Task: inverse folding
């Protein structure tokens, strides 16, 4: 199994730099190219961060649906994982962390006492997880009918708050910039943000059909989608972005075309990542308690393991909150 030293030697950097990059140390000041090189090298060497199980130590496996590179590009899932790890570290719980694209990731989870699965998974993957351990909780995956414990966000009321807020600002046309997610190569996961965006636009008599774009949950995708809308002609009064990285990319595109925010168009994001408060202008967004989702998942699973089994499958739904900043104003 590859070590941090192996990665450092191949990438030509110090072992401490590799460790800080792989542990998402935000205080580390190195070029983006260095971070990408270390991540690529770790993936090529099939590096696994693993805490070995010792006597009487409960060990939880964390399965991350995103790759390490995707997690860096979109901090939504990183925040969930940090919540899980924070609880584990404070309660002396062992951690085995894997990404779905890791080689032999199933085998690396064989001795864990329970699984926290972050993201969207196919039924085939779920069956594989069940063979590892019956103590499983899913985070950010809506399961209907409820056959496993899972924690999700209340997208319905979050989108109702967004559309109501923009309607009160007299915005009668609103666009949607979102992302597509797939549980497998050909099976798309339904984004209920889009579903409820459409529902509440229709309830508030808001025009939206000409301004819906879907790409990825990244700044680059937001930038490209916003440029497409600009090049197509007339823009709506406002844009709702299904993630803050998408909104940040959209802001860049608008700025390059000298379209003023919020004077010419209002922008709303989703997630409330740290960078949202430092955009120009500061981004109105929806706070998503992703860290709390991870923390709660780890706590619930830990208590179930100590009790020797999970209770009946349940769905936990956490509220989201609109945070008003300066990227929206009355039309």
Result:
């Amino acid at each position: 199994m590859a070590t941090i030293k192996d990665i450092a030697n191949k990438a030509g950097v110090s072992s401490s730099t590799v460790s800080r990059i792989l542990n998402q140390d935000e205080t580390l000041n190195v070029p983006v190219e260095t971070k990408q090189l270390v991540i690529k090298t770790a993936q090529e060497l099939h590096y696994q961060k693993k805490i070995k199980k010792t006597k009487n130590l409960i060990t939880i496996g964390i399965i991350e649906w995103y790759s390490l590179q995707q997690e860096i590009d979109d901090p939504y899932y990183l925040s969930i994982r940090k919540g899980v790890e924070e609880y584990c570290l404070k309660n002396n719980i062992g951690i085995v962390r894997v990404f779905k694209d890791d080689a032999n990731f199933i085998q690396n989870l064989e001795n864990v006492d329970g699984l926290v699965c972050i993201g969207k998974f196919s039924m085939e993957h779920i069956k594989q997880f069940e063979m590892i351990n019956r103590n499983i909780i899913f985070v950010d995956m809506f399961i209907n009918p409820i056959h496993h414990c899972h924690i999700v966000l209340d997208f319905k009321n979050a989108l109702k708050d967004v559309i109501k807020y923009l309607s009160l600002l007299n915005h009668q046309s609103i666009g949607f910039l979102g992302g597509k997610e797939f549980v497998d190569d050909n099976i798309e996961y339904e984004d209920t943000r889009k579903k409820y965006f459409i529902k509440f636009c229709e309830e508030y008599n808001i025009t939206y059909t000409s301004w819906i774009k879907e790409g990825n949950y990244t700044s680059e995708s937001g930038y490209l989608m916003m440029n497409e809308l600009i090049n197509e002609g007339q823009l709506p009064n406002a844009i709702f972005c299904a993630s803050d990285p998408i909104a940040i990319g959209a802001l860049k595109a608008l700025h390059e075309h000298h379209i003023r925010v919020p004077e010419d168009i209002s922008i709303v994001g989703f997630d409330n990542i740290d960078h949202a408060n430092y955009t120009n202008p500061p981004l109105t967004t929806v706070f998503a308690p992703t860290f709390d989702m991870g923390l709660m998942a780890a706590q619930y699973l830990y208590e179930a393991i100590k009790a020797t089994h999970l209770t009946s499958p349940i769905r936990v739904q956490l509220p989201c909150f609109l945070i008003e900043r300066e990227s929206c104003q009355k039309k």
